[in-house]
Amino acid sequence: MARGVLATTIVGSGMAMLDGTIINVALPRIGEELEASVAGLQWILDGYLLALAALILVAGSLGDRYGRRRMFIVGVVWFGVASGLCAAATTTEMLVATRILQGIGGALLTPGSLAILQASFAHDDRARAIGAWSGLGGIAAAIGPLLGGVLVQVWSWRLAFLINLPLAAVCVLLARRYVPESRDEEATGHPDFLAAAVGAIGLAGLTGALVEAPGRGIGDAVVLVAIVLGVAGLAAFLVIQHRSADPLVPPKLFRDRTFSLANALTFVVYAALGGVMMLMVMQLQVSLDYSPTAAGLAGLPITVIMLLFSGRSGALAQKIGPRTQLVVGPILVGVGMLLLMRVGPGSSYLGSVLPAVVVFGAGLATVVAPVTATVLAAAPDRYAGVASGVNNAIARSGGLLAIAVLPAVAGLSGAAYTDPVALTAGWRTALLVCAALAIGGGLIALGIHNGVLDTPSAEDTDESPHPGECLHCGVDSPPTHVRPGHHA
Predict the structure, then answer these.
(1) 127 and 242, same domain (yes or no)
(2) How many domains does the chain have?
(3) Distances in Å between the alpha carbon of 168 and those of 74, 182, 389, 470?
(4) How far is the C-alpha of 252 from the C-alpha of 275, rounded, in Å?
């Protein structure tokens, strides 16, 4: 049972992570075939991230109320159908619209993965389970550029979306067979769809202003309207959350310093990652004349390092506390980004690319599992879906805003990404910004409580196990005992 639950969550979240990176290597071909500008490419990436970030909070709440397995399966099916529509797109606008639909599916399935793990594994085993989930799911994200390169070179960028269809089918079969249903039995009322809509409008307005301002100008009517909608929407969202009796984001979660700092770390690190991953495969293909497959292969060391060390990093955090890894990991990521500044026209793989991606991968493997485990451990069990939703929304928002801002900061607009000289100059500017963000994340982690992953005593918690929770489920073996579900 434990292995089946873990496999299901890995396939589901891995599919979403894979899609989030597989498209990066396809961007030059998409831009060429659909005649997309830099802003068009930004929207293709940000359309997905926008829907994901805006809706993931209400999706986590839906899972807590109506069943985490149920919403997970709905999300997987939705994601698969939307992927098929993406593959059929014939214009930039059509692809952006279908990517938004795909993001809705991702919002439904992503928080469900973590919440299912939180509900199915006992406290002592969660860090190991999350480590395995983070590592293997992270491999899907890391292998995305390689797989995308092969698919683009073999036939078309459309295969990068069609590959999700068989994965979705397998995931649904696994979920129906292995995953027990779980929900928050204390949840009352209905999810706050108004707050979700207002937050989505605010995030969309802010993103639109950041993407369109470089091309249209800050005084353009469209940009000004987007700014007003963004500021007003986000402000209204905060007011609604503070006044609501049943908010999407309970303010008391952020009263915990560790929860707040771990999410701040998540934001800056994922912002740095979003900017670098968008530009790296373009730099390799445009400035170094790599084929799509070669550009994907360039990141293979990241995949290997994640496979070997992410799970162990989660287990180590359980033993010694997460703070050391949360400080060291982002700093290593930042150092790797600084090393990537050496990658330009004429650079060799062994001399420039490989050392950078090795350090970069080591940093990711160090930080990913511990930060996820820290966020969940800092929140009460009954808020599992909400906590994972908040963390995912913050991660996606970081990437969303980085993709919206960095091309302008780097001086890239229109078709500038097709010019090796302009792209290399912009690439190096973006790397400086992203490295500063990542290293800043490591400094933020200094304030995190190192004992957050310690097993709580009976006196310290009034949380009761979820129905169907494994009292001693190891990742490497089936459960030895399962508390039966409580039925009325």
Answers:
(1) no
(2) 2
(3) 11, 21, 21, 26
(4) 31
**φ, ψ at 470 (rounded to 5°):** -75, 125
Q: Rounded CA gap, 78 and 83, in Å?
A: 9
Amino acid at 448: I
What type of residue sits at position 391? N
Q: Per-residue pLDDT for the chain (488 aa), expressed as one digit of tens each?
A: 677 888 898 888 888 888 877 888 888 889 989 998 888 998 998 899 888 888 877 887 788 788 889 999 999 999 999 999 999 999 999 999 999 999 999 888 877 787 788 777 877 777 778 778 866 776 676 677 778 888 888 888 999 899 999 999 999 999 999 888 887 776 666 777 888 889 889 989 998 898 888 878 888 899 999 999 999 999 999 999 888 877 878 888 898 999 999 999 999 999 998 889 888 888 999 999 999 889 888 888 887 887 788 778 888 998 999 999 999 999 999 999 999 999 999 899 999 999 999 999 999 999 988 998 899 888 887 776 678 778 878 888 898 889 888 888 888 777 777 889 989 999 999 999 999 999 999 999 999 999 888 865 444 444 433 333 332 232 222 222 223 333 33
CATH number of the domain enclosing 116: 1.20.1250.20
Same-domain check for residues 254 and 377: yes
62 and 30 in a single domain? The answer is yes
| Helix, strand, coil share of the chain (percent; to 5) | 80, 0, 20
Q: Are residues 353 and 379 in the same domain?
A: yes
Helix (H), strand (E) at residue 309: helix 300-320
| 90 phi-psi bin (left φ>0, alpha ψ -120 to 50, beta other) | alpha
- As a whole number of angstroms, the distance between CA 2 and CA 10 comes to 12
Select from 415, 407, 112, 99 the least CA-distant residue to 274: 407
d(CA 12, CA 73): 9
Tell me the C-alpha distance between 90 and 133, whole Å: 35
361 plus 423 within the same structural domain: yes
* Helical axes 92-120 vs 68-87, angle rounded to 10°: 160
Is there a domain that residue 187 lies in? no
Tokens of 116: 């299912």
| Judgement on whether residues 154 and 221 belong to the same structural domain of the protein | no
224 burial (CB, 10 Å; 0-12 / 13-18 / 19+) is middle
| 476: Cβ contacts below 8 Å, ≥ 6 apart | none
- Residues 63/72, Cβ–Cβ less than 8 Å: yes
Domain range for 113: 2-182+248-447
Which domain-ending residue is among 207, 228, 247? 247
Asked whether residue 287 is domain-assigned, the answer is: yes
Do 215 and 320 lie in one domain? The reply is no
Is 212 part of a structural domain of the chain?
yes
Chain centre distance of CA 386: 15
Do 68 and 111 have their domain in common?
Answer: yes
Q: Is 90 exposed, middle or buried (0-12, 13-18, 19+ CB in 10 A)?
A: exposed
